[in-house]
């Protein structure tokens, strides 16, 4: 069949694909041609009006405009709320069965946060006192001495330091180190569930589609040990009402931790300086070889 007798819409797609056929880098050629194929298929499927297409372009424009280059990254939020971040994570972290699972990185990590001693309290704002501790090991059960655990979480108001300028710098952030036995200990406050930023295009998309914008309570980790895969993950609080409906699809059952109430008479209270009751969460991380 020559092109004159064929569906002009299909011909257009092929014409566009052909313009990328000489892309010297084969990976870039594959990416661009697949993008064109899927994008054209989407448009053919939904047959947007011109007003709808302009609304889509306005949405993407505003998504870029609200980014501030520091903590507000609306494109990451869009990727997260569409489940794309978790899909990329799943594709790139197909781990052996007993290695700790990864989850979404999120937009609120800040590099260069303070080094903290074992058991040091990283909370400079009030909340329910908590201890999170356990071991970092390799897949053979050997301790990963000196593994660095970069940790971050929100304050009790549901906002991260950096995002909330009223909080002291470095609040609820820090870099802990596993000891020679692989043991780590973080003194902090109990994480709370919180809304992702809802005042931009992504928030409007969530409202228009009758989705809530909450994430279940969690503590973020990035764990690095030489010769091993870097692990980006969270620990989620058991019992959180949003575990089954995380706005960014980050929950995995293996990452849910039951915090246990402990009294001021607990040996851990004396060891870590808790003067009243606190919540204890225990979790062991397993990192595969790089
Ligand atoms: C977070 O957990 O920090 C986060 C992840 C995805 C989107 C927004 C926030
Ligand atoms: Fe978070």
Automatic annotation (TrEMBL):
Q: Which GO terms describe its biological process?
A: catechol-containing compound metabolic process
Keywords in UniProt for this one? Dioxygenase, Iron, Metal-binding, Oxidoreductase
PROSITE patterns for the chain: INTRADIOL_DIOXYGENAS (PS00083)
Return any one Pfam family short name. Dioxygenase_C
InterPro entries given in the database record? 1_2-HQD/HQD, Catechol_dOase_N, Intradiol_dOase_C, Intradiol_dOase_core, Intradiol_RC_Dioxygenase
Q: Which family does it belong to?
A: Belongs to the intradiol ring-cleavage dioxygenase family.
Query: Which GO terms of the molecular function aspect are on file?
Result: catechol 1,2-dioxygenase activity; ferric iron binding
- Highest taxon of the source? Bacteria
Work out whether the entry's keyword set contains Oxidoreductase.
yes
Query: Under which name does UniProt file this protein?
Result: 6-chlorohydroxyquinol-1,2-dioxygenase
According to its UniProt record, which cofactors does this protein need? Fe(3+)
Domain Intradiol ring-cleavage dioxygenases residue range list: 132-160
Q: Which Gene3D superfamilies would you find in this protein's record?
A: Aromatic compound dioxygenase
